[in-house]
Protein backbone atom coordinates (compact mmCIF):
# COMPACT_ATOMS: atom_id res chain seq x y z
CA UNK A 1 0.00 0.00 0.00
CA UNK A 2 2.71 2.51 0.94
CA UNK A 3 4.47 1.60 -2.30
CA UNK A 4 1.48 2.77 -4.29
CA UNK A 5 1.46 5.99 -2.31
CA UNK A 6 5.05 6.68 -3.37
CA UNK A 7 4.16 5.93 -7.00
CA UNK A 8 1.19 8.30 -6.85
CA UNK A 9 3.26 10.95 -5.09
CA UNK A 10 6.02 10.97 -7.73
CA UNK A 11 3.49 11.08 -10.52
CA UNK A 12 1.53 13.94 -8.96
CA UNK A 13 4.75 15.93 -8.60
CA UNK A 14 5.46 15.26 -12.26
CA UNK A 15 1.94 16.32 -13.32
CA UNK A 16 2.23 19.49 -11.25
CA UNK A 17 5.55 20.30 -12.92
CA UNK A 18 4.02 19.82 -16.39
CA UNK A 19 1.09 22.04 -15.45
CA UNK A 20 3.42 24.73 -14.11
CA UNK A 21 5.55 24.74 -17.29
CA UNK A 22 2.46 24.72 -19.49
CA UNK A 23 0.76 27.63 -17.74
CA UNK A 24 3.95 29.67 -17.51
CA UNK A 25 4.39 29.38 -21.26
CA UNK A 26 1.41 31.68 -21.71
CA UNK A 27 2.45 34.92 -23.38
CA UNK A 28 0.84 37.90 -25.04
CA UNK A 29 0.65 36.06 -28.32
CA UNK A 30 -1.56 33.38 -26.81
CA UNK A 31 -4.50 35.74 -27.19
CA UNK A 32 -4.14 36.33 -30.95
CA UNK A 33 -5.44 33.67 -33.32
CA UNK A 34 -2.11 33.14 -35.10
CA UNK A 35 -0.34 33.05 -31.74
CA UNK A 36 -2.75 30.63 -30.10
CA UNK A 37 -2.92 28.30 -33.12
CA UNK A 38 0.55 28.51 -34.68
CA UNK A 39 2.80 30.16 -32.11
CA UNK A 40 2.85 33.32 -34.26
CA UNK A 41 4.58 31.34 -37.05
CA UNK A 42 7.97 31.65 -35.41
CA UNK A 43 8.50 28.42 -33.52
CA UNK A 44 12.21 27.52 -33.67
CA UNK A 45 14.05 24.28 -34.35
CA UNK A 46 14.29 22.81 -30.84
CA UNK A 47 10.66 23.25 -29.83
CA UNK A 48 9.46 22.21 -33.28
CA UNK A 49 11.56 19.05 -33.04
CA UNK A 50 9.96 18.06 -29.76
CA UNK A 51 6.44 18.97 -30.89
CA UNK A 52 6.69 16.88 -34.05
CA UNK A 53 8.32 14.11 -32.03
CA UNK A 54 5.63 14.10 -29.37
CA UNK A 55 2.84 14.04 -31.93
CA UNK A 56 3.97 10.81 -33.49
CA UNK A 57 5.29 9.36 -30.29
CA UNK A 58 2.08 8.59 -28.47
CA UNK A 59 0.94 6.11 -25.85
CA UNK A 60 0.70 3.69 -28.76
CA UNK A 61 4.43 3.89 -29.39
CA UNK A 62 5.36 3.71 -25.71
CA UNK A 63 3.18 0.69 -24.95
CA UNK A 64 2.57 -0.65 -28.46
CA UNK A 65 6.19 -0.91 -29.60
CA UNK A 66 7.21 -3.27 -26.77
CA UNK A 67 3.87 -5.02 -27.30
CA UNK A 68 4.66 -5.69 -30.95
CA UNK A 69 8.16 -6.92 -30.17
CA UNK A 70 6.77 -9.22 -27.49
CA UNK A 71 3.92 -10.58 -29.58
CA UNK A 72 5.33 -10.66 -33.12
CA UNK A 73 9.10 -10.21 -32.74
CA UNK A 74 10.76 -8.68 -35.79
CA UNK A 75 7.56 -7.28 -37.34
CA UNK A 76 7.83 -4.79 -34.48
CA UNK A 77 10.52 -3.07 -36.56
CA UNK A 78 7.53 -1.74 -38.49
CA UNK A 79 7.26 1.02 -35.88
CA UNK A 80 10.98 1.72 -36.09
CA UNK A 81 10.84 1.92 -39.89
CA UNK A 82 7.83 4.18 -40.22
CA UNK A 83 8.87 6.60 -37.51
CA UNK A 84 12.28 7.00 -39.11
CA UNK A 85 10.74 7.61 -42.54
CA UNK A 86 8.31 10.32 -41.40
CA UNK A 87 10.92 13.11 -41.80
CA UNK A 88 11.03 12.52 -45.56
CA UNK A 89 7.52 13.93 -45.81
CA UNK A 90 8.39 16.80 -43.49
CA UNK A 91 11.40 17.61 -45.66
CA UNK A 92 9.44 17.45 -48.91
CA UNK A 93 6.16 19.16 -47.96
CA UNK A 94 6.90 21.22 -44.87
CA UNK A 95 8.75 24.25 -46.26
CA UNK A 96 6.25 24.73 -49.09
CA UNK A 97 3.28 24.50 -46.70
CA UNK A 98 4.96 26.98 -44.34
CA UNK A 99 5.58 29.44 -47.18
CA UNK A 100 2.04 29.27 -48.56
CA UNK A 101 0.66 29.61 -45.05
CA UNK A 102 2.68 32.74 -44.43
CA UNK A 103 1.73 34.30 -47.76
CA UNK A 104 -1.97 33.49 -47.71
CA UNK A 105 -2.73 33.28 -44.00
CA UNK A 106 -3.56 29.58 -43.83
CA UNK A 107 -3.77 27.94 -40.41
CA UNK A 108 -5.37 24.58 -41.26
CA UNK A 109 -5.42 21.97 -44.00
CA UNK A 110 -8.99 22.99 -44.82
CA UNK A 111 -7.87 26.63 -45.34
CA UNK A 112 -5.44 25.55 -48.01
CA UNK A 113 -7.76 23.11 -49.76
CA UNK A 114 -10.76 25.46 -49.74
CA UNK A 115 -8.70 28.37 -51.04
CA UNK A 116 -6.72 26.52 -53.67
CA UNK A 117 -9.67 24.64 -55.15
CA UNK A 118 -12.07 27.54 -54.65
CA UNK A 119 -14.51 25.37 -52.77
CA UNK A 120 -15.75 26.06 -49.26
CA UNK A 121 -17.61 22.73 -48.92
CA UNK A 122 -14.34 20.91 -49.62
CA UNK A 123 -12.69 22.74 -46.72
CA UNK A 124 -15.62 21.96 -44.42
CA UNK A 125 -15.47 18.30 -45.44
CA UNK A 126 -11.74 18.11 -44.70
CA UNK A 127 -12.49 19.68 -41.31
CA UNK A 128 -15.25 17.22 -40.44
CA UNK A 129 -13.12 14.21 -41.35
CA UNK A 130 -10.27 15.70 -39.34
CA UNK A 131 -12.36 16.10 -36.19
CA UNK A 132 -13.83 12.61 -36.64
CA UNK A 133 -10.31 11.17 -36.71
CA UNK A 134 -8.81 13.32 -33.97
CA UNK A 135 -11.42 12.80 -31.24
CA UNK A 136 -11.15 8.97 -31.13
CA UNK A 137 -7.37 9.34 -31.25
CA UNK A 138 -7.58 11.67 -28.26
CA UNK A 139 -9.87 9.21 -26.49
CA UNK A 140 -7.26 6.49 -26.89
CA UNK A 141 -4.63 8.72 -25.23
CA UNK A 142 -6.99 9.50 -22.35
CA UNK A 143 -7.92 5.86 -21.88
CA UNK A 144 -4.22 4.98 -22.01
CA UNK A 145 -3.49 7.44 -19.20
CA UNK A 146 -6.30 5.97 -17.09
CA UNK A 147 -5.13 2.39 -17.59
CA UNK A 148 -1.54 3.30 -16.79
CA UNK A 149 -2.52 5.05 -13.58
CA UNK A 150 -4.72 2.19 -12.44
CA UNK A 151 -2.15 -0.50 -13.20
CA UNK A 152 0.91 1.31 -11.84
CA UNK A 153 -0.78 2.25 -8.56
CA UNK A 154 -2.38 -1.17 -8.02
CA UNK A 155 -5.79 0.42 -8.29
CA UNK A 156 -5.17 3.12 -5.68
CA UNK A 157 -5.97 5.63 -8.43
CA UNK A 158 -8.87 4.13 -10.42
CA UNK A 159 -9.21 4.41 -14.18
CA UNK A 160 -11.69 7.28 -14.18
CA UNK A 161 -9.62 9.38 -11.80
CA UNK A 162 -6.28 8.76 -13.51
CA UNK A 163 -7.68 9.65 -16.92
CA UNK A 164 -9.33 12.74 -15.44
CA UNK A 165 -6.17 13.94 -13.66
CA UNK A 166 -3.93 13.60 -16.68
CA UNK A 167 -6.34 15.32 -19.02
CA UNK A 168 -7.36 18.11 -16.68
CA UNK A 169 -3.70 19.08 -16.67
CA UNK A 170 -3.52 18.92 -20.46
CA UNK A 171 -6.78 20.77 -21.06
CA UNK A 172 -5.76 23.49 -18.58
CA UNK A 173 -2.50 24.42 -20.24
CA UNK A 174 -3.77 24.05 -23.78
CA UNK A 175 -6.73 26.28 -22.86
CA UNK A 176 -4.50 28.93 -21.32
CA UNK A 177 -1.36 28.91 -23.43
CA UNK A 178 -2.21 27.37 -26.81
CA UNK A 179 0.70 26.19 -28.94
CA UNK A 180 3.26 27.87 -26.74
CA UNK A 181 2.15 25.72 -23.79
CA UNK A 182 2.24 22.62 -25.95
CA UNK A 183 5.75 23.42 -27.16
CA UNK A 184 7.38 23.83 -23.75
CA UNK A 185 5.60 20.87 -22.18
CA UNK A 186 6.45 18.68 -25.18
CA UNK A 187 10.10 19.60 -24.74
CA UNK A 188 9.97 18.62 -21.08
CA UNK A 189 7.97 15.44 -21.65
CA UNK A 190 10.12 14.40 -24.61
CA UNK A 191 13.27 14.53 -22.49
CA UNK A 192 11.45 12.61 -19.76
CA UNK A 193 10.39 9.88 -22.20
CA UNK A 194 13.85 9.49 -23.70
CA UNK A 195 15.50 9.23 -20.28
CA UNK A 196 12.98 6.71 -18.92
CA UNK A 197 12.93 4.61 -22.08
CA UNK A 198 16.73 4.20 -22.18
CA UNK A 199 16.98 3.58 -18.46
CA UNK A 200 14.33 0.84 -18.50
CA UNK A 201 15.42 -0.60 -21.85
CA UNK A 202 18.98 -1.16 -20.68
CA UNK A 203 18.26 -2.07 -17.05
CA UNK A 204 15.61 -4.74 -17.67
CA UNK A 205 17.75 -6.95 -20.00
CA UNK A 206 20.68 -6.40 -17.61
CA UNK A 207 18.74 -7.61 -14.58
CA UNK A 208 17.05 -10.56 -16.27
CA UNK A 209 19.67 -11.78 -18.70
CA UNK A 210 22.90 -9.98 -17.83
CA UNK A 211 22.81 -7.65 -20.81
CA UNK A 212 21.19 -6.94 -24.18
CA UNK A 213 23.61 -9.16 -26.13
CA UNK A 214 23.11 -12.02 -23.69
CA UNK A 215 19.33 -11.62 -24.00
CA UNK A 216 19.42 -11.95 -27.78
CA UNK A 217 21.81 -14.90 -27.53
CA UNK A 218 19.32 -16.74 -25.32
CA UNK A 219 16.45 -15.82 -27.64
CA UNK A 220 18.42 -17.19 -30.57
CA UNK A 221 18.65 -20.52 -28.73
CA UNK A 222 15.10 -20.72 -27.44
CA UNK A 223 12.93 -18.77 -29.88
CA UNK A 224 14.86 -17.77 -33.02
CA UNK A 225 11.65 -17.24 -35.01
CA UNK A 226 11.14 -13.91 -33.20
CA UNK A 227 14.39 -12.47 -34.48
CA UNK A 228 13.75 -12.49 -38.24
CA UNK A 229 10.82 -11.92 -40.54
CA UNK A 230 8.06 -13.12 -40.76
CA UNK A 231 8.33 -13.23 -36.96
CA UNK A 232 6.41 -15.44 -34.57
CA UNK A 233 3.00 -14.59 -36.05
CA UNK A 234 3.82 -15.06 -39.72
CA UNK A 235 3.40 -11.49 -40.89
CA UNK A 236 3.86 -11.22 -44.66
CA UNK A 237 6.38 -8.87 -46.27
CA UNK A 238 3.52 -7.41 -48.29
CA UNK A 239 1.55 -6.29 -45.26
CA UNK A 240 4.66 -5.18 -43.37
CA UNK A 241 5.96 -3.06 -46.26
CA UNK A 242 2.66 -1.46 -47.24
CA UNK A 243 1.82 -0.70 -43.60
CA UNK A 244 5.17 1.09 -43.24
CA UNK A 245 4.49 3.12 -46.40
CA UNK A 246 0.96 4.16 -45.41
CA UNK A 247 1.99 5.15 -41.89
CA UNK A 248 5.17 6.95 -42.94
CA UNK A 249 3.87 8.92 -45.90
CA UNK A 250 0.14 9.14 -45.14
CA UNK A 251 0.89 10.29 -41.61
CA UNK A 252 1.56 13.86 -42.70
CA UNK A 253 -2.13 14.16 -43.63
CA UNK A 254 -2.99 14.08 -39.93
CA UNK A 255 -4.12 17.64 -39.24
CA UNK A 256 -2.08 17.90 -36.04
CA UNK A 257 1.13 17.18 -37.96
CA UNK A 258 0.29 19.13 -41.07
CA UNK A 259 -0.73 22.25 -39.17
CA UNK A 260 2.60 22.41 -37.36
CA UNK A 261 4.25 23.21 -40.69
CA UNK A 262 2.53 26.58 -40.47
CA UNK A 263 4.04 27.32 -37.10
CA UNK A 264 7.69 26.96 -38.21
CA UNK A 265 9.77 30.12 -38.22
CA UNK A 266 11.24 29.11 -41.60
CA UNK A 267 11.43 26.30 -44.12
CA UNK A 268 15.06 25.89 -43.11
CA UNK A 269 13.98 25.09 -39.55
CA UNK A 270 11.58 22.42 -40.80
CA UNK A 271 14.37 20.81 -42.81
CA UNK A 272 16.68 20.92 -39.82
CA UNK A 273 14.00 19.21 -37.73
CA UNK A 274 13.62 16.46 -40.31
CA UNK A 275 17.39 15.92 -40.39
CA UNK A 276 17.44 15.14 -36.68
CA UNK A 277 14.12 13.32 -36.63
CA UNK A 278 15.51 9.79 -37.21
CA UNK A 279 17.47 10.29 -33.98
CA UNK A 280 14.17 10.77 -32.13
CA UNK A 281 13.07 7.41 -33.51
CA UNK A 282 16.03 5.79 -31.75
CA UNK A 283 13.94 6.20 -28.62
CA UNK A 284 12.04 3.12 -29.77
CA UNK A 285 15.10 0.89 -29.62
CA UNK A 286 15.17 0.46 -25.82
CA UNK A 287 11.39 0.02 -25.80
CA UNK A 288 11.73 -2.84 -28.28
CA UNK A 289 14.37 -4.38 -25.97
CA UNK A 290 11.76 -4.52 -23.21
CA UNK A 291 9.32 -6.33 -25.50
CA UNK A 292 11.97 -8.85 -26.57
CA UNK A 293 12.87 -9.37 -22.91
CA UNK A 294 9.27 -10.39 -22.24
CA UNK A 295 9.23 -13.24 -24.78
CA UNK A 296 11.06 -15.79 -22.63
CA UNK A 297 9.76 -14.41 -19.32
CA UNK A 298 6.13 -14.96 -20.29
CA UNK A 299 6.75 -18.04 -22.45
CA UNK A 300 4.67 -20.32 -20.22
CA UNK A 301 1.86 -17.93 -19.45
CA UNK A 302 1.42 -15.55 -22.36
CA UNK A 303 -0.04 -12.14 -21.55
CA UNK A 304 -3.66 -11.63 -22.51
CA UNK A 305 -2.86 -8.18 -23.88
CA UNK A 306 0.50 -7.68 -25.55
CA UNK A 307 0.56 -3.93 -24.88
CA UNK A 308 0.73 -4.53 -21.14
CA UNK A 309 4.20 -6.08 -21.47
CA UNK A 310 6.06 -2.92 -20.43
CA UNK A 311 3.91 -2.49 -17.32
CA UNK A 312 4.18 -6.16 -16.32
CA UNK A 313 7.94 -6.23 -16.83
CA UNK A 314 8.49 -3.13 -14.74
CA UNK A 315 6.05 -3.96 -11.97
CA UNK A 316 6.12 -7.75 -11.57
CA UNK A 317 9.29 -9.10 -13.16
CA UNK A 318 12.21 -6.72 -12.82
CA UNK A 319 11.60 -6.01 -9.14
CA UNK A 320 12.00 -2.26 -9.29
CA UNK A 321 11.51 0.07 -6.35
CA UNK A 322 8.32 2.16 -6.24
CA UNK A 323 10.43 5.19 -7.14
CA UNK A 324 11.29 3.66 -10.50
CA UNK A 325 7.67 2.59 -11.04
CA UNK A 326 6.61 6.17 -10.36
CA UNK A 327 9.09 7.44 -12.94
CA UNK A 328 7.96 4.79 -15.42
CA UNK A 329 4.36 5.91 -14.95
CA UNK A 330 5.39 9.54 -15.45
CA UNK A 331 7.29 8.69 -18.64
CA UNK A 332 4.40 6.70 -20.08
CA UNK A 333 1.93 9.42 -19.11
CA UNK A 334 4.23 11.91 -20.84
CA UNK A 335 3.79 9.95 -24.07
CA UNK A 336 -0.01 9.98 -23.76
CA UNK A 337 -0.29 13.58 -22.58
CA UNK A 338 2.15 15.19 -25.00
CA UNK A 339 0.31 13.66 -27.94
CA UNK A 340 -3.09 14.32 -26.36
CA UNK A 341 -2.34 18.02 -25.96
CA UNK A 342 -1.66 18.34 -29.67
CA UNK A 343 -4.77 16.37 -30.57
CA UNK A 344 -7.08 18.44 -28.36
CA UNK A 345 -5.57 21.69 -29.64
CA UNK A 346 -5.79 20.67 -33.30
CA UNK A 347 -9.29 19.22 -33.07
CA UNK A 348 -10.51 22.48 -31.52
CA UNK A 349 -8.81 24.64 -34.16
CA UNK A 350 -10.14 22.52 -37.03
CA UNK A 351 -13.66 22.47 -35.57
CA UNK A 352 -13.83 26.22 -35.10
CA UNK A 353 -11.94 27.36 -38.18
CA UNK A 354 -12.92 24.81 -40.84
CA UNK A 355 -16.36 23.69 -39.68
CA UNK A 356 -17.85 26.58 -37.67
CA UNK A 357 -15.97 29.36 -39.49
CA UNK A 358 -17.76 29.13 -42.85
CA UNK A 359 -21.10 28.14 -41.27
CA UNK A 360 -22.38 29.18 -37.85
CA UNK A 361 -19.56 31.59 -37.06
CA UNK A 362 -19.41 33.45 -40.36
CA UNK A 363 -17.74 36.83 -39.96
CA UNK A 364 -16.79 36.28 -36.31
CA UNK A 365 -14.06 38.51 -34.89
CA UNK A 366 -10.58 37.18 -34.15
CA UNK A 367 -11.23 37.50 -30.45
CA UNK A 368 -14.40 35.44 -30.74
CA UNK A 369 -12.55 32.78 -32.76
CA UNK A 370 -9.79 32.42 -30.17
CA UNK A 371 -12.32 32.20 -27.39
CA UNK A 372 -14.40 29.62 -29.28
CA UNK A 373 -11.25 27.58 -29.94
CA UNK A 374 -10.30 27.65 -26.25
CA UNK A 375 -13.69 26.45 -25.12
CA UNK A 376 -13.68 23.81 -27.84
CA UNK A 377 -10.44 22.45 -26.33
CA UNK A 378 -12.32 21.89 -23.08
CA UNK A 379 -15.48 20.63 -24.79
CA UNK A 380 -13.74 18.14 -27.05
CA UNK A 381 -11.50 16.90 -24.21
CA UNK A 382 -14.62 16.31 -22.13
CA UNK A 383 -16.32 14.42 -24.97
CA UNK A 384 -13.20 12.30 -25.45
CA UNK A 385 -13.07 11.63 -21.70
CA UNK A 386 -16.69 10.47 -21.67
CA UNK A 387 -15.98 8.22 -24.65
CA UNK A 388 -13.05 6.77 -22.69
CA UNK A 389 -15.34 5.97 -19.75
CA UNK A 390 -17.90 4.23 -21.95
CA UNK A 391 -15.02 2.72 -23.93
CA UNK A 392 -16.96 1.53 -26.96
CA UNK A 393 -15.01 -0.83 -29.17
CA UNK A 394 -16.44 0.95 -32.20
CA UNK A 395 -14.06 3.80 -31.44
CA UNK A 396 -11.14 1.98 -32.98
CA UNK A 397 -13.27 1.44 -36.07
CA UNK A 398 -14.02 5.15 -36.21
CA UNK A 399 -10.32 5.95 -35.88
CA UNK A 400 -9.34 3.48 -38.60
CA UNK A 401 -12.09 4.67 -40.90
CA UNK A 402 -11.42 8.38 -40.46
CA UNK A 403 -7.66 7.93 -40.77
CA UNK A 404 -8.14 6.01 -44.00
CA UNK A 405 -10.18 8.91 -45.34
CA UNK A 406 -7.58 11.46 -44.21
CA UNK A 407 -4.92 9.67 -46.23
CA UNK A 408 -7.12 10.03 -49.30
CA UNK A 409 -6.61 13.81 -49.10
CA UNK A 410 -3.01 13.22 -50.16
CA UNK A 411 -3.38 13.88 -53.94
CA UNK A 412 -5.51 16.94 -53.17
CA UNK A 413 -2.84 18.38 -50.90
CA UNK A 414 0.01 17.52 -53.26
CA UNK A 415 -1.97 19.15 -56.05
CA UNK A 416 -2.41 22.34 -54.05
CA UNK A 417 1.31 22.42 -53.24
CA UNK A 418 3.07 21.32 -56.39
CA UNK A 419 0.69 20.67 -59.30
CA UNK A 420 -1.56 23.67 -59.93
CA UNK A 421 -2.81 22.00 -63.09
CA UNK A 422 -4.72 19.33 -61.17
CA UNK A 423 -8.39 20.23 -61.36
CA UNK A 424 -10.87 20.23 -58.55
CA UNK A 425 -13.10 17.65 -60.24
CA UNK A 426 -10.19 15.23 -60.68
CA UNK A 427 -8.92 15.34 -57.10
CA UNK A 428 -12.45 15.18 -55.69
CA UNK A 429 -13.34 12.17 -57.78
CA UNK A 430 -10.06 10.51 -56.82
CA UNK A 431 -10.60 11.14 -53.11
CA UNK A 432 -14.17 9.85 -53.35
CA UNK A 433 -13.23 6.63 -55.15
CA UNK A 434 -10.23 6.10 -52.85
CA UNK A 435 -12.34 6.63 -49.73
CA UNK A 436 -15.10 4.26 -50.79
CA UNK A 437 -12.55 1.64 -51.82
CA UNK A 438 -10.74 1.99 -48.49
CA UNK A 439 -13.91 1.61 -46.41
CA UNK A 440 -15.00 -1.45 -48.42
CA UNK A 441 -11.63 -3.14 -48.08
CA UNK A 442 -11.22 -2.31 -44.40
CA UNK A 443 -14.70 -3.21 -43.21
CA UNK A 444 -16.44 -5.37 -45.83
CA UNK A 445 -14.03 -7.35 -47.97
CA UNK A 446 -10.44 -8.16 -47.30
CA UNK A 447 -7.62 -6.38 -49.02
CA UNK A 448 -6.06 -8.04 -52.13
CA UNK A 449 -2.72 -9.83 -51.60
CA UNK A 450 -3.02 -9.13 -47.88
CA UNK A 451 -1.60 -5.64 -48.37
CA UNK A 452 -2.57 -2.68 -46.23
CA UNK A 453 -5.89 -1.38 -47.58
CA UNK A 454 -4.59 2.20 -47.56
CA UNK A 455 -2.06 1.43 -50.29
CA UNK A 456 -4.66 0.00 -52.67
CA UNK A 457 -6.99 2.90 -51.97
CA UNK A 458 -4.36 5.55 -52.65
CA UNK A 459 -3.23 3.79 -55.85
CA UNK A 460 -6.83 3.75 -57.05
CA UNK A 461 -7.19 7.38 -56.02
CA UNK A 462 -4.12 8.40 -58.05
CA UNK A 463 -5.28 6.35 -61.02
CA UNK A 464 -8.68 8.07 -61.02
CA UNK A 465 -7.04 11.49 -60.71
CA UNK A 466 -4.77 10.72 -63.68
CA UNK A 467 -7.57 9.36 -65.86
CA UNK A 468 -9.95 12.17 -65.02
CA UNK A 469 -7.22 14.73 -65.61
CA UNK A 470 -6.54 13.24 -69.01
CA UNK A 471 -10.08 12.94 -70.28
CA UNK A 472 -12.10 15.70 -68.66
CA UNK A 473 -12.30 19.15 -70.15
CA UNK A 474 -10.60 21.90 -68.20
CA UNK A 475 -13.36 23.94 -66.61
CA UNK A 476 -12.95 27.62 -65.93
CA UNK A 477 -11.85 27.49 -62.33
CA UNK A 478 -8.94 28.27 -60.10
CA UNK A 479 -5.58 29.87 -60.67
CA UNK A 480 -4.49 26.81 -62.56
CA UNK A 481 -5.90 28.05 -65.85
CA UNK A 482 -3.22 30.64 -66.41
CA UNK A 483 -0.47 28.09 -66.21
CA UNK A 484 -2.03 25.65 -68.68
CA UNK A 485 -0.30 25.49 -71.99
CA UNK A 486 -1.63 22.75 -74.19
CA UNK B 1 18.74 24.26 -56.19
CA UNK B 2 19.59 22.34 -59.32
CA UNK B 3 18.28 19.12 -60.76
CA UNK B 4 21.19 16.97 -59.63
CA UNK B 5 20.60 18.01 -56.04
CA UNK B 6 16.92 17.06 -56.12
CA UNK B 7 17.68 13.84 -57.95
CA UNK B 8 20.29 12.80 -55.40
CA UNK B 9 18.09 13.73 -52.44
CA UNK B 10 15.16 11.81 -53.93
CA UNK B 11 17.41 8.83 -54.60
CA UNK B 12 18.65 8.89 -51.02
CA UNK B 13 15.08 8.88 -49.71
CA UNK B 14 14.07 6.06 -52.07
CA UNK B 15 17.05 3.88 -51.14
CA UNK B 16 16.51 4.38 -47.39
CA UNK B 17 12.80 3.57 -47.72
CA UNK B 18 13.39 0.45 -49.80
CA UNK B 19 16.11 -0.71 -47.41
CA UNK B 20 13.58 -0.80 -44.57
CA UNK B 21 10.83 -2.70 -46.43
CA UNK B 22 10.59 -5.32 -49.15
CA UNK B 23 12.83 -5.94 -51.07
CA UNK B 24 15.75 -4.22 -49.32
CA UNK B 25 15.22 -5.77 -45.92
CA UNK B 26 15.16 -9.27 -47.48
CA UNK B 27 18.95 -9.37 -47.75
CA UNK B 28 19.28 -8.60 -44.04
CA UNK B 29 16.70 -11.12 -42.83
CA UNK B 30 19.05 -13.20 -40.65
CA UNK B 31 20.27 -13.44 -37.08
CA UNK B 32 23.99 -13.93 -37.75
CA UNK B 33 26.30 -12.09 -37.74
CA UNK B 34 25.24 -10.29 -34.58
CA UNK B 35 26.47 -6.71 -34.34
CA UNK B 36 26.81 -4.92 -30.98
CA UNK B 37 24.95 -7.87 -29.49
CA UNK B 38 21.95 -7.33 -31.75
CA UNK B 39 20.55 -9.80 -34.29
CA UNK B 40 21.51 -8.68 -37.79
CA UNK B 41 18.00 -7.64 -38.86
CA UNK B 42 17.65 -5.40 -35.79
CA UNK B 43 21.06 -3.86 -36.46
CA UNK B 44 20.06 -3.30 -40.11
CA UNK B 45 17.23 -0.95 -39.07
CA UNK B 46 19.46 0.94 -36.67
CA UNK B 47 22.06 1.27 -39.42
CA UNK B 48 19.61 2.67 -41.98
CA UNK B 49 18.20 5.16 -39.52
CA UNK B 50 21.74 6.46 -39.21
CA UNK B 51 22.26 6.46 -43.00
CA UNK B 52 19.02 8.43 -43.44
CA UNK B 53 20.18 10.96 -40.85
CA UNK B 54 23.66 11.39 -42.34
CA UNK B 55 22.33 11.77 -45.89
CA UNK B 56 19.76 14.36 -44.87
CA UNK B 57 22.38 16.20 -42.88
CA UNK B 58 24.64 16.42 -45.93
CA UNK B 59 21.69 17.55 -48.07
CA UNK B 60 20.90 20.21 -45.49
CA UNK B 61 24.45 21.54 -45.30
CA UNK B 62 24.75 21.63 -49.10
CA UNK B 63 21.52 23.59 -49.36
CA UNK B 64 21.69 25.94 -46.43
CA UNK B 65 25.38 25.96 -45.53
CA UNK B 66 26.39 25.44 -41.94
CA UNK B 67 25.20 28.77 -40.59
CA UNK B 68 21.88 30.54 -40.21
CA UNK B 69 21.26 32.26 -43.52
CA UNK B 70 19.00 31.82 -46.49
From TrEMBL, chain A:
InterPro entries: Na/Glc_symporter_sf, Na/solute_symporter, Sodium:Solute_Symporter. It is a multi-pass membrane protein. The keyword Transport applies. Coiled coil: none annotated. The chain crosses the membrane at residues 6-23, 43-65, 77-94, 122-149, 155-175, 187-205, 237-258, 279-299, 323-352, 372-390, 396-419, 426-445, 451-471. It holds the Pfam family SSF. It is found in: Membrane. The keyword Lyase does not apply. Its main location: membrane. Keywords: Membrane, Symport, Transmembrane, Transmembrane helix, Transport. Belongs to the sodium:solute symporter (SSF) (TC 2.A.21) family. This is Sodium:solute symporter family protein. It comes from Halomonas rhizosphaerae.
UniProtKB/TrEMBL annotation, chain B:
The chain crosses the membrane at residues 7-28, 40-62. It comes from Halomonas rhizosphaerae. Keywords: Membrane, Transmembrane, Transmembrane helix. This is DUF3311 domain-containing protein.
Amino acid sequence: MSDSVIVVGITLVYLAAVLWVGLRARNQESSSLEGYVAGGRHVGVVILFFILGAEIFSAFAFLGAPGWAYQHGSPGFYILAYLSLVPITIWALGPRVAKLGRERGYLTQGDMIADHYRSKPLGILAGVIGVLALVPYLTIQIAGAGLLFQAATDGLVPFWLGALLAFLVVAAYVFASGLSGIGWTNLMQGIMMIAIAWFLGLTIPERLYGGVGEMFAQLQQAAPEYLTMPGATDMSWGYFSTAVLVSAFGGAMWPHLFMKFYSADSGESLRKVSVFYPLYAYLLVPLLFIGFAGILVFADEPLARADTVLLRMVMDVANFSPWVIGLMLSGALAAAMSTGANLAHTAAVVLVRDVFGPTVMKGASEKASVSATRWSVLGLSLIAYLFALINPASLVMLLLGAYGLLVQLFPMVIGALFFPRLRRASVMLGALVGSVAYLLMEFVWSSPLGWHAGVWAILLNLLVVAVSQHFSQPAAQGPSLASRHH
Amino acid sequence: MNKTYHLLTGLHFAVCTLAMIWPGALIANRIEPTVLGLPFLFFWYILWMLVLFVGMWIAFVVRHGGGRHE
